[in-house]
Amino acid sequence: MGRYLLIRIATAFPQLILISLLSFAVMKMAPGDPVASLVGGREYMTAADYERVSRNLGLDRPVPVQYIIWLGNLARGNWGKSLRDGREIQGIVSGGLKASLVLVGTASIFLIPLSLAAGYWAGTRPRSWVDHAVSGSALLSAATPAFWLGLVLIVLFAVKAGFFPSSGQRTLGEEGGLIDRAAHLVLPVLTIVLTQAGPYIRLARGSIQDTMSADFLRAARARGLKRRTRILRYLLPNALTPFITWVGLSFPLLVGGVFIVEWVFAWPGLGRLFLQAAVSRDYPMLMASVLVTGVLVIAGNILADLLVAWLNPKLRRGDER
Q1: Which of 196, 167, 159 is nearest to 183 (CA)?
Q2: Is residue 75 part of a domain?
């Protein structure tokens, strides 16, 4: 297991280099001018001012040279400064990542157990009314737009009822204690759970149903093993393998992919930073956001593989060989 982990970590560096190279090339080919966006348009700048600002930002050099300079600064721990406001990117991204991890981590506490319970409930009762109800709810969840549901929840529970705050991470002008921060989490977490639970439920349901018809489970039932033993020792470890793999891959994508929810609720997370940087053509901020998301995806993939190997003894023995 340890040798496998070292190999995966070593292969992660070339993957990150490739991700950064492709992202840098795509951003440079995208339409828009970051220098002109600083003042609202090229027509508001003279030619001399445009050249001076481009030179100060290092954007007058060839694209390969810009990438090499950026990569060298990154290797020295210098993430650069935002083209939009001149702040240090490392501090901005770390703050946004922390806020996103709090939001997605809290949502996952409810999302994963709910999906497993619903998937198990439907998977052990195929073609019943329970299976149809859970499958229909999962389909409705996957088809519901996050921005629409977020706005509906704001209107119902923040504007009309006044139960929860509608935006931000804490109340402005206050220190933001635990209760205040928890209240700000309710609506965005509820939006994420209700709109993201569909694929998790369907995957858990399908895995449970496939495993229920496996030969080893029928053999365990024929041996007279107790139902609890069959579930905990045979059913769940085998059925959870694809589910854990999906969770490991989707969790980092959720961190960078809930920007719609973060934008609707003005949550200062990584996805919202990415969207703001894309609108303003803030290349250093975009590169930092993409790179952090890539690190999370690779780390989630490695963690999922380790958990699957821990659940499946055959994989552990294969790793030892």
Answers
A1: 167
A2: no
Residue 27 belongs to a domain: no
Provide the domain limits for residue 201.
89-320
Which residue in this structure is represented by tokens 């806020």? 99
Q: Which residues neighbour 38 within 8 Å (Cβ) at sequence distance 6 or greater?
A: 53, 83, 84
Asked whether residue 3 is assigned to any structural domain, the reply reads no
Q: Distance between alpha carbon 247 and the CA centroid of its chain, in Å? A: 10
Among residues 299, 311, 291, 304, which one has the least CA distance to residue 89? 291
How many structural domains does the chain have? 1
DSSP letter (8 states) at residue 88: B
In contact, 103 and 262? CB cutoff 8 Å: yes
Q: Which helix (H) or strand (E) holds 222?
A: helix 215-222
Residue 321, pLDDT score: 46
In a domain, 97, yes or no: yes
Cβ density class 238-250: b for 16+ within 10 Å, e for less: bbbbebbbbbbeb
pLDDT in tens, 203-253: 889 888 888 877 787 787 788 888 778 877 778 877 877 787 777 777 766
Cα(259)–Cα(143) distance, integer angstroms: 18
* Nearest of 16, 59, 12, 61 to residue 36 by alpha carbon: 59
